[in-house]
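Fig. S4 source data, part A: sequence.
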Amino acid sequence: QAQLVESGGGLVQAGGSLRLSCATSGIPASHHFMAWFRQTSGKEREFLAHTTWDGFSIYYADSVKGRFTISADSAKKTIYLQMNSLKPEDTAVYYCAGKIFGSTQYNYWGQGTQVTVSS
């Protein structure tokens, strides 16, 4: 059974940085996309970025391109999201997710970690 556990959220001032981690188990280190999403109250969950475990296929949403960096450590089975130049509008609950190649939906989800950016 797949498990994803996010950590690293917290309170940071605008312009600051945070690194989120997502420790996984039960997800093969091949043929899977791993992604980060975020959600604020009353809004739909927003896709931020995905990567393959080998890092060969990485994609970013325009809203975070150039500020956020996704990476994967297949040996540690952990996904990271380095977030720089944070803005108050980045305040949200951040989720890690995974899906097998070809799937239209992300099947595995973590519980989320809160990120709050103060102005």
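Fig. S4 source data, part B ends here. The chain has a mean pLDDT of 95.
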